[in-house]
Amino acid sequence: MANIDLYANGIEAALREESVGKATLLTMTLMIGYFGSCKSLLDAVAIGLNQIHNLKLGHREQDFGKPKFWNRLRETNTDTFERYRPKKSLADEIIKWRDSAIHRQAPIILPSHTTGEIPREEITLWLINSPEPHIDRNIISVPTGQDVKIDPRSLHAQWRSDFIWLCGQICKDIAEWSETV
Fold this sequence. Notes:
Helices cover 58% and strands 8% of the residues. The chain contains 6 helices and 5 strands, in the order αααααβββββα.
């Protein structure tokens, strides 16, 4: 959780950079690290659940994005499966952002204005609201029903309470498990 907050705070600071170019590049770079840290937290929880419930999954299978993880958790402990299952859609979204940022395309950060003598405080940086937007002749589109651009801080604001919940749950599970071994 500390790494996630570190990157979120770095993004916040980058957005205040005087130079729009520097702010844009720093924000984009920090977003890549942010998504990686989010995925790492999910992996840590999956690894913990694998150990606690003796799921006997290989290293690459201890992953919220793998159906085998969810199937084995459901087979082994239905209560735990039902408790964590609502976070699967969060995990899917994080994995899409992280995989795209690392393997295909860095998050797209665009300034609200690019020409003219506009004071820095009037320029906003936006994150294109899709891990893999469609770009055709300088027109960017995202899936129907989504805003095309969002504040780069909005994903953290949306996800942080879920991360806190996951940390609390896995700590509780570890504490209960450690009393039995």
